[in-house]
Specification:
Blueprint lengths: L10 H11 L3 H5 L4 H14 L2 E5 L15 E6 L2 H14 L4 E6 L12 E7 L8 H11 E12 L5 H17 L7 H10 L3 E9 L5 E8 L12 H9 L2
Parallel strand pairs: 1-2, 1-4, 2-3, 4-5
Antiparallel strand pairs: 5-7, 6-7
Bound molecules: S-adenosylmethionine.
S-adenosylmethionine binds next to helix 1 and strand 2.
């Protein structure tokens, strides 16, 4: 078992890191993560309705959603969120219901509040990823989806060794390099009413994935469930 104690994240490290990133975030991470964001938005819009973006950051995705979608955004970093407020004003995004400073692990929304919960490049930056996913499932309506774009760490080989070596530096920058797909799969396995429905490799270099979970129930739009073969393939690809 890997000793991750020296690379675990705490909220103070994360808020300090993103206060530093805020002025330059869009310049550094705008284009590089664009394809992943587009894929997540497309997946979220297939469900539509009321969408929560967790770790909304500078609000870089917000203008790209259909104006039919009602958007709520939360982030733990006040300086990142200030940029998001500026963006909402600049683009006249009247479909944005609100932006709040809030911890992803303790969302102050009632159960079953949203049709979709989106988190792009966020789950590997929170101190307790599984507790955070529990919160996403709680605030999601039955029949809704959790849509993630997330870094998936290598299981073995040179990339695994490099990620391990870079982990302490990455922590200071505000994210983890080591995070196996197995953690997502195990979380879904043990969370009642939640199914893994897609994993799709995303650039840069396929080191990121679009990961979708469905919450059972609701009148729901008919959508295919993940076949057992596809589920095993997604796990094997990690
Ligand atoms: C890598 S950035 C991603 C920003 C944006 N989603 C994007 O697509 O570029 C990670 C964001 O997650 C936020 N974040 C980290 N930990 C959080 C937490 N516990 N609760 C809410 N937001 C958090 C950070 O402040 C930062 O804005």
């Amino acid at each position: 078992m890997t000793n991750l104690s020296h690379v675990e994240l705490d909220k103070q490290t994360v808020t300090t890191a993103y206060a530093r990133w805020a002025p330059v975030y869009d310049l550094v991470f705008g284009a590089v993560f664009e394809r992943g964001r587009q894929a997540a938005i497309a997946a979220a819009e297939r469900i539509g309705g009321r969408i929560l973006e967790v770790g909304v950051g500078t609000g870089i995705s917000l203008p790209h959603y259909s104006r039919e979608c009602r958007l709520c955004g939360v982030d733990i970093s006040e300086p990142m969120l200030r940029k998001a407020h500026e963006r909402v004003a600049e683009f006249g995004l009247t479909n944005v219901e609100g932006l709040w400073v809030m911890d992803a692990e303790h969302l102050s929304f009632p159960d079953d509040s949203f049709d979709v919960v989106v988190a792009q490049y966020v789950v590997t930056t929170v101190p307790n990823p599984e507790a955070t996913l529990d919160e996403f499932a709680r605030v999601l309506k039955p029949g809704g989806e959790i849509v993630l774009v997330s870094r998936v760490g290598a299981e073995a080989g040179l990339r695994r060794a490099l990620e391990h070596g870079f982990a302490p530096a990455a922590r200071k920058l505000g994210w983890r390099t080591e995070f196996s797909f197995e953690r997502y799969a195990k979380w879904a396995d043990r969370t009642s009413g939640v199914r893994l429905i897609e994993r799709r490799a995303m650039p840069p270099l396929g080191h990121f994935s679009l990961i979708r979970f469905a919450k059972d129930g609701g009148a729901g739009v008919l959508r295919p469930s993940f076949s057992q073969e596809a589920y095993q393939a997604a796990r094997a690809a990690s």
